[in-house]
Write a structure and sequence with these properties.
Blueprint: E1 10-14, H1 50-53, E2 71-74, E3 77-80, E4 93-95, E5 100-101, H2 104-113, E6 119-122, E7 132-135, E8 143-149, E9 157-158, H3 166-175, E10 182-184, E11 188-192, E12 201-206, E13 218-223, E14 232-235, E15 247-249, E16 255-257, E17 285-286, E18 292-293, H4 326-338, E19 348-351, H5 356-366, E20 389-390, E21 399-404, E22 407-416, E23 419-422, E24 435-439, E25 452-461, E26 475-479, E27 510-515, E28 529-536, E29 552-556, E30 572-576, E31 582-590, E32 601-605, H6 610-617, H7 619-622
Antiparallel strand pairs: 1-11, 2-3, 4-5, 4-6, 7-8, 8-9, 8-14, 10-14, 12-13, 13-19, 15-16, 17-18, 20-28, 21-22, 21-24, 22-23, 23-26, 24-25, 25-26, 27-28, 27-30, 28-29, 29-32, 30-31, 31-32
The structure holds 4-(aminomethyl)benzoic acid.
Amino acid sequence: MKLVRVVLLLLCFCLSSFEGKYGKHWKNQVTKKHELPSAPAAPQEDLVDAKCLLNKYTHRSCSKVFCQPWEKCVDGTCICKLPYQCPKNGTSVCSTNGRSFPTYCHLKSFECLRPEAKFLNNGTCTAEGEFSVSLSDESTDSKGIVTVKLVDQDKKMFICKSNWGMAEANVACFDLGFQQGALDTRGRFHYSEDLQINSTECLQVRCQGFETTLAECTFSKRRVPGYQGLAGVLCYTPAADLPATESFACVNGKRIPLNRACNGVNDCGDQSDELCCKGCQDGSFLCKSGVCLPNQHRCNGELDCISGEDEVGCEGSRRGRTPSSALSRHSQDRLSRTGAEYPEVQEETEILTADMDTERKRIKSLLPKISCGVKRPVHTRRKRIVGGKPAQAGDFPWQVAIKDGDKINCGGIYIGGCWVLTAAHCVRPSRAHHYQIWTSLLDWIKLNSNIVVEKVERIIIHEGYNGTTYQNDIALIEIKKRPSHKECVFSNSIPACVPWSPYLFQPKDSCIISGWGREKDNQKVYSLRWGEVNLISNCSQFYQNRYYEKEMECAGTADGSIDACKGDSGGPLVCLDTSNVTYVWGIVSWGENCGKPEFPGVYTKVANYFDWISYHVGRPLISQHNV
Ligand code: 4AZ
């Protein structure tokens, strides 16, 4: 191993170009092909959704992103789980205060609650183990070339510049105590003479960006012939702030150049620059929920978009990410991260630390899962033209009919356990004993043999229900358990999933309504019918001063030919996600007439009531993720 001793007291070590706007001393240097300087800051109005920004979404906003496995989603925010809520399976890990934890999840949940101790290493705690990160520049503590000392190594090592991105730089800065992460990975960095540089031997590091210390990232050693650029970082300090007019204001208070919002890179460190996007730049991937993802997240075998689009159409393009294929993984990353075409060189790569990202995925796979919104494969529905078509057995296994005396006036939606969702205007708590819940009903003139009839235990009307404005038109029906039964029997029913985020479906998405309601000409209907409608935005234009955006949803067709009508109330408007999982997106609520294009059907927006529903039925019953 040949070490190069640097004799200058302070050597100006140029890493790459850096734009002058951060200060006079940052000068443009040689620009390599794969490090083009970013374009001048330009207004990003076409990319950023300003209204959405008011919600101040971050990496902890579970209506936009999935929570970490050591977190759960409560009221739209990922909060820390208690360690005992972690899966038990796993190997022990050690924290920086020398404490051993049964699994990585236990440590992360403990750290989430009490951030003073961080991850140190996988395995047992050793007496001499220590991990440290430092920056080379003696003149300032916020920038420099990064050096690390790994737990089981005795000397400080440099990090290679290739693969060093904002995710890694943010983690390095978090580790050094800069809570807003990094400002840039490029610039002119200095290092002092007592650092020994052997630039052909540097460490590769890969982080996800959520880590709180570089010790959680995966380090590998790679020997390549010739010179290697070294990783440097400029950590964010308010002094380095950009003018408000030329920058994007992150939720954590940091300011980043405008042109770095919606580019798939978590420049803010809290992801707030990637969560309110109308489009994505630099080849990053746009989720329907308005989130930009780095392109490597597409088809990586893990769901990142809340409605799953990043893992659709991946056949043949699945990226192999087994830890054993370190060499190919590295080569692949180099291509996908920089977009540059490097010549393939045979390199020796040795993984030095545990792969905690794989461990995170393993923990995620062990979390409890609920089953909803997936039909038994009886037959495929025969799709016909719009207009309301008769349903076949098994098409709508969540659909129920509410019988009041001898009349069926309303529908309902089975959501699991003993619970049916309906419209508040359909039911009265005092009449609970008059109601019957009919499941698997197709035609109430020609009754099918598998119908199950349930009695009602109680009815919960939303406390904000207003019978005049139809605000909060939502109610829960609890089904009576059969004597000697611990659970409710919904033998032929399958629950529809309850949407936890208002971003799961968007205007223009095609969804399905079903019910026993009247035809357009007020003709009575005895059989269950269904039709496809599109979600409609801007519904106040049809119902001025009567439409409440947050609580209501409009749906219909351009010619109005498909619509819900009298008798469909309380029934479902369901939408299917990219994996064909069915969500109850709306409850038939009201509308001016039926089948008139200028007056679309109005539905209770169920996603707005996830917390209200979970409060009554219990979070685990309806939580698909982030339990
Ligand atoms: C009703 O009276 C009703 N066209 C339900 C839905 C619509 C109109 C009326 C929407 O139950």
